[in-house]
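## tool: complex_structure
## caller: assistant
## args:
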Amino acid sequence: MSRLTEAEAVETAASRKYKYGFTTKMEYEEFPRGLNEDIIREISRRKNEPEWMLEFRLKSFHHWLTMEEPDWPNVHYQKPNYDDIIYYSSPKEKPKKDSLDEVDPDILETYEKLGIPLHEQKMLQNVAVDAVFDSVSVATTFKKKLAEAGVIFCSISEAIQDHPELVKKYMGSVIPTNDNFFAALNSAVFSDGSFCFVPKGVKCPMELSTYFRINNPDSGQFERTLIIAEEGAEVSYLEGCTAPMFDTNQLHAAVVELVALEDADIKYSTVQNWYPGDENGVGGIFNFVTKRGICKGDRAKISWTQVETGSAVTWKYPSVILKGDNSVGEFYSVALTNDYQQADTGTKMIHLGKNTRSTIISKGISAGKSQNSYRGLVKIGKKAHGSRNYSVCDSMLIGSECGAHTFPFIESSNNTSSIEHEATTSKIGEDQIFYLQQRGLDEEQAISLIINGFCKEVFKELPLEFAVEATKLLSIKLEGSVG
Amino acid sequence: MEQAVQFKQSTYLKDLHENVVKTETGVDAVEQARAAAVLNVDAWSFPTPRTEDWRQTSLKPLYQQDFAQAAIDSEILASDLEHIRLEEASEATIVMVNGKFHAGLSTIRSLPDGCYAGSAIGAPASVQTALGKQFSKVARYDKDAFTAFNTAILSDVAVVYVAKEVKVENPIHIINITDARTENVYSTARVFIYGERHSDATIVEDFIGLGDNSYFNTAVSETVLEDEAHITHVKVQRETRKAIHISRVASLLGRGSNYNSYTVSIGAQLFRNEPLSLVDAENAHATLDGLVLVDGNQISDTHSSLDHMKPNCTSHQLHKVIANGSGHSVFNGKIFVRKDSQLIDAFQENRNLLLSENANVFTKPQLEIFADDVKCSHGATIGQLSEDELFYLQTRGISRGDALQMLTYGYALEVIENIPVPSLRKQLSFAVAEFTGAKIEAQDIV
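## result:
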């Protein structure tokens, strides 16, 4: 699948512009712009939330007011005006849906354009989808089959209603409300997101997936995902994102928390393709996301895989706290930037337990006038005896006006642990392109093939359908960047 | 309370500076630099752990103590220096006592024509011209209070000037000695090295201290390499365990020049070194190697910058650390490749040996690349000695303790063995052996 067929090449050339840039005309139920306590109370009231949830939001809001937007990442952008954002936006809809037939046909059509197999009968693969449209979760498929296995997979709003004890116990336990500026903002105003609970000993029978889409030009999207895997449970979760084209910058500040108890295994994959702005750097999404998982029990494992191709500015560090002994953390990432995109992304691996292991594989590709940074932290605590980390971050530069940067922070206070880190930066090989051209591939096909080889280590971690999508996405993104 | 501490820190250097009795050098370039440094004395901010570059290193040992200005006329005997003298440099040794040139202890004989080693005061016209061109212009540490402080209070400058197309065969030894026998003192060391076109020289800059009191030493050295010049610069920091040594080692590389810098850090309670290499011409090569040994409660912090401003250059950096006891080592190695600086080959390696339970190592290799046709890589490791190697030695009848010492010694030697001064290699090998506890005989040293 890694090589493009001729038909695909024609197709990708035709769709050189952002492919997912259509908007769906819908009636919105909007809030006034700006943020204050009343807005938060209103969000909470409208979602019919219990008192403790409102308190959680208000506490976060007060923290947020005291915090400053971070300026340490290696990105430059016009800071959003937080008084000009609509903090809650949902398609105007009847309250609750039992089956997909009740979902607004316009929304379903949008998802079809996006190529999401929302209709169960159309589904070829075994994927349960929770789709988040602007701020509200519109549909969750395969609910029944999951329920039989004991897995709870629903929107977070539903979880607050139906499983308050679980949400109360775990929400904010990995990422405290005052963790950082954007996490605090999210905790105050989060509108919806996914919730997943896999009970003890259950292996989730299918891959779970959430699809995010921002449809409204002025709304921010603040979704919140919480995944809990109990003792011995296993789950694989996919996340995809798109947005239509607007010439304003939209804010996306999500929070994702993962909790893995003893022997649990969580695999979280993301293909992020938010609108990156046009070729002059106008518009695009600000993607400021806080993702963190904790291996709470012994032998737990958390694995992050991400393919970041979209967004005007990305600021994202999926992290793992390795608290349980013998726990494992993994991070596989491909970050591609083109035109005026800026990405500052990486991971944090915090080793606290004994014999904990972590692997970091990061591939950065910069083209056009973009800036791509890897920023990571590997920290081995005093009691993390016998721990190991292995990190590789490779950068590839295409064109002479882009930049690639690495900022790895490596800290160790334990003399029985070891850390290895290596990084390289190089240009796409002219010899390789020449060789492939000799074999009859045109330049763009050649580049696509080389890039796919460069990213292979990461792509092989993705579930199959995502790997195919990611491969295509990269070749579309790099159209015309060499020549 | 918090604010009071902040306040004390932020004006620490300014306060010290106010009480300085300055000694004018009479050298135009130096006095002009001094005037410029004092201009923004109010902006000399003292770094706090909140400053990104000082996050891992606290300056508490400095601002919690009081220091008096070191006397210029301190009495130093030749025997105080005997143990560090280099036999190769017997004819070219500059001794700076508390930052001031000491004619009686220095021996400068038989330098080739046109070359100069000694104080900036009374130096020949060619040296004055070189000072006028570059003095204090290479140490481009933006807003750095320590460099400005050094420039503002210095009383002398040790200068090495190598004339065009001359190779100085023997190394030139600059000994900086601080006398802390009677009280806590502060002093400055300033070195200026200028290599003209096609020149070649090796300079060893040495730092030692006397006495049991604390002392605070700011050291700034600047090296200028004209086209095709070859300069090897060795910095040996073997201050007493009571020293706070904050240093800047700057270099500016001309076309086709070759700059080899080796820094060996053994002493000091708190050592902060900021090597800065500006590769501002094509076809130049820079080496920035370092060896850091810390134990007890020593803190050693290296923040290096290698700035590739022009295309077709190469650089190599090997930074090795051995942390024992409650030692604390920090390394931040920045490599910049500016826009249009194509065909750069830059390599950086940082290896840390963490030997004890209480030692800490922080490392942050950092690449910032704005050009596409480059080959840049870095590697960093934190770990222990290989169990296989220890086992191998044990199977050969060597005790585990001896094997540990032997391997640690071998690990440290990788940096030392490149230093082109045999007697210094020998001194440093013994120092490393003493640190690691390895037993070596004089004839074992290569």
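## assistant note: Residues 2-281 of chain B form one domain. The radius of gyration of chain B is 21 Å. Handing back to user.
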